[in-house]
Design a protein that fits this description.
The chain is built from 4 helices and 9 strands. The relative contact order is 0.23. It is an alpha+beta fold. Helix 1 packs across helix 4 (156-167).
Length: 168
């Protein structure tokens, strides 16, 4: 029987993944320890949830002012088949430059999603496919402990204070 704790993301220090940033650098969980972290799972072909959320994140970072520079902010793709580092770099150029795109093998992304308790699934379409995925934004404290989730379309008046609390 699972407990509600099994549904919460594990601390970053207990996660195990090895991804590549849109700039070509390797990123592992240990790289995030010491700074508060904000993570969103999405993909570049996403028609609405992902660009909306990335626009929201860009706005939240603006609202935080210089404090936003203390955050790790990442989009982890759930579509590594199409989202190479180059594709992520081009896509993210339309949003706040502090947002780092991460990709890797499907198994590495699965390992990352597992630690976050996020899910994703390839959904076939006529001649193509889309990705169904967890749409919340995960917040972690600087020591790697899970802080909160910002739900999709959560009002900015509530989202920004959640980020500030995670940064304390």
């Amino acid at each position: 029987m699972s407990s509600s704790a099994d549904l919460l993301p594990v601390p970053i220090s207990e996660m195990d993944f090895d991804l590549i940033s849109h700039g070509g650098e390797r990123v592992r969980p240990a790289d995030w320890i010491g700074r508060p972290t904000m993570v969103f799972f999405g993909f570049t072909w996403c028609p609405d949830v992902c660009p909306t959320t990335l626009s929201d994140i860009s706005g939240w970072l603006d609202d935080l002012g210089p404090d936003a520079d203390r955050l790790n902010v990442s989009l982890i793709t759930v579509d590594p088949e199409r989202d190479s580092p180059e594709v992520l770099a081009d896509y993210l150029s339309h949003f706040d430059p502090r947002i780092v795109g991460l990709t890797g093998t499907l198994s590495e992304i699965g390992r990352a999603a597992s630690g976050f308790r996020a899910r994703f699934e390839k959904v076939p379409r006529e001649d193509d496919y889309t990705m169904d995925h967890t749409a919340g934004v995960f917040l972690f404290r600087a020591d790697g402990r899970f802080a909160s989730i910002i739900d999709y379309h959560e009002d900015r008046r509530f989202a920004v204070p959640k980020i500030r609390r995670a940064m304390q």
